[in-house]
Amino acid sequence: MMPRFRPLAIISHPHYLLHDTGGGEHPEVAERLVAIRRRLEKSPLFPAIREKTARTAERSDILTYHDESYLFRLEETALRGQTYIDHPDNQICFESFDSIMLSAGGCLTGIDLLEQGEDLVFCGVRPPGHHAERAMALGFCFVNNAVIAARYWQRRYGREKIAVIDWDAHHGNGIQDAFEEDPSVFYISIHEHPTFSFPGTGYAEEKGLGAGKGTTLNVPLPPGADDGVFLQAMKKVVEPALDGFRPERIIVSAGFDGHRLDDMSGLAYSTDLYGLIGEKMAGMGQKYCRGKVLSILEGGYHLDALAAGVEQYLLGLAK
């Protein structure tokens, strides 16, 4: 007998595949989404998946965080045919600006679905977003999807207390920058220690500033940290902190580059861990916000490990 899973909406758009990072050795490639799609088509979860198409974000949505001058510069850089912006890591092409706006818009599409009755949404978007800062592209990221989503949830639906839980292997410097003085958004990041890892931010003593002091929580892990280390951090640090904050809605920055096969970090997570993380994110959603969890794809660059990790995460989420 086939297992039954809770319905799960997955947001995508064909234009995500047109964001061309130049081939060669660049790790953030369209094949990431192709690999995920192929894996899910063969998964026992597939009958529970509802495929949804992303809409384009409005410029006003992007400007809730990013500077208007930066948005113009980003668009102009793509349309002029330049190959990168701000740093050679941030490869772009003529089609990239539309992909960027659809990536952010996919997250807003997901929020609309959650507010219309869906419980679980996974935004299978690219390019990723959590490194993008107010006026700078960084780490393959151009606009900050999680930040734009949180602000949209607050403005459009009045959901004031938002938790952003980021377990990408790398610290989400852009998310922290956006919210470190804002007590209405609790940013939690579990990542490889910044001494050893890009972008060099996310030390434990970074706890927020001013009115936002106490609503930034960084949990840096040593290189080689495995499933047990991650789960202990969740139990002893993250879960008690969420109990104190009690968010109305949860956004997950879901990065899969902590896998032991992914050479973008020194972490040593197994594929099975992502299933347990999915169960934990679903449980937090049920506990605090009537099940409303928005998951956004961030990193993950070993194609087989990424696809397997996403499948396990979604299986855990939809149990």
How do the strands and helices of this protein lay out in sequence?
Blueprint: E1 8-12, H1 31-41, E2 49-53, H2 59-62, H3 68-79, E3 84-85, E4 87-91, H4 96-115, E5 120-123, H5 145-157, E6 162-166, H6 173-179, E7 185-192, E8 216-221, H7 227-245, E9 249-254, H8 271-289, E10 293-297, H9 303-317
Parallel strand pairs: 1-2, 1-5, 5-10, 6-7, 6-9, 7-8, 9-10
Antiparallel strand pairs: 3-4
What would the keywords be for this entry?
319 residues, alpha/beta, eight-stranded parallel beta sheet, two-stranded antiparallel ribbon, 9 helices, 10 strands, globular
What do these coordinates show?
With 319 residues, this protein is an alpha/beta fold. 38% of the residues lie in helices and 16% in strands. The chain has nine helices and ten strands. The strands form two sheets. Strands 2-1-5-10-9-6-7-8 form an eight-stranded parallel β-sheet, with helices on both faces. A two-stranded antiparallel ribbon has the order 3-4. Strand 3 and strand 4 form a beta hairpin.
